[in-house]
Amino acid sequence: MESSLELSNSLGSVSSLLTRCRTFKVLVIGDSGVGKTCLTHRLCAGQFPDRVEATIGVDFRERLLDIDGEKIKLQLWDTAGQERFRKSMVQHYYRNAHAVLFVYDVTCPASFRGLISWIEECRQNSLGQEIPRFLVGNKSDLRDPSRTEGQVSQEQATRFAKVHGMMFFETSAKNPPLKRVNGQRGDMEVSYQRDKVEDIVMAVGAKLKRQKKHSAANALMHSGSFKVLSKKRPEKELWTCC
Ligand SMILES: Nc1nc2c(ncn2[C@@H]2O[C@H](COP(=O)(O)OP(=O)(O)OP(=O)(O)O)[C@@H](O)[C@H]2O)c(=O)[nH]1
């Protein structure tokens, strides 16, 4: 039997584990040119970059979040969409990933169809179904409401997301789309999209935070006593301070 002092120490460790800042590796994948680099700039720095070049290999950007008083660091891995720039590094991308953003361009149906091969690449690299997945239709500012051809509809994307267990967002890394409204000064265009980019980052953070609590609670339940956690520490790179 554990003494009450040991028990209280154990509970103290649980609480410090739960409040510790954790870094989450989030992969951003999709065809070349869909806007992964611009999106990760917006997600991390809040700005659309002036100039971008095709990603070679991988780029990292980080975003520190405070979710309900808890600090979480998202480390976004902006991977190259072009096969020739990613070949030799693919396995490294997928190692220890905590979440994946699948990005397509809403004005490029080929990039939407291409998602199947990105899902397959995840499977080949042993990314389990328990890893949270998010579907992001980018470049919504270029959507032409008068056209149905040559664009990916939100209905199509919603169905796809449901089938593949993903949370779906449509957004623009560049600009919110404009809408014609009848204001006091007559007809004018105003932006009507809330900052969906911010919604994405908060949704990813919240989902990962919930998962973290869940896995810590599971570890506690399965060990019987929390002492076991200190013996079997999670992998070093997964637990870093902000
Ligand atoms: N209009 C519009 N253009 C965008 C948006 N996001 C990205 N772009 C443009 O799309 C082009 C490609 O953007 P990138 O961010 O380099 O695309 P990527 O997916 O990272 O491409 P790779 O590095 O080759 O994989 C650039 O010219 C961007 O300016 C958007 O939301 N709206």
UniProtKB/TrEMBL annotation:
<dbReference type="InterPro" id="IPR005225">
    <property type="entry name" value="Small_GTP-bd"/>
</dbReference>
<keyword id="KW-0636">Prenylation</keyword>
<dbReference type="GO" id="GO:0003924">
    <property type="term" value="F:GTPase activity"/>
</dbReference>
<keyword id="KW-0449">Lipoprotein</keyword>
<dbReference type="GO" id="GO:0032482">
    <property type="term" value="P:Rab protein signal transduction"/>
</dbReference>
<comment type="similarity">
    <text>Belongs to the small GTPase superfamily. Rab family.</text>
</comment>
<dbReference type="GO" id="GO:0005525">
    <property type="term" value="F:GTP binding"/>
</dbReference>
<dbReference type="Pfam" id="PF00071">
    <property type="entry name" value="Ras"/>
</dbReference>
<dbReference type="InterPro" id="IPR027417">
    <property type="entry name" value="P-loop_NTPase"/>
</dbReference>
<protein>
    <submittedName>
        <fullName>Ras-related protein Rab-33B-like</fullName>
    </submittedName>
</protein>
<keyword id="KW-0342">GTP-binding</keyword>
<dbReference type="InterPro" id="IPR041822">
    <property type="entry name" value="Rab33A/B"/>
</dbReference>
<keyword id="KW-0472">Membrane</keyword>
<keyword id="KW-0547">Nucleotide-binding</keyword>
<dbReference type="InterPro" id="IPR001806">
    <property type="entry name" value="Small_GTPase"/>
</dbReference>
<dbReference type="GO" id="GO:0012505">
    <property type="term" value="C:endomembrane system"/>
</dbReference>
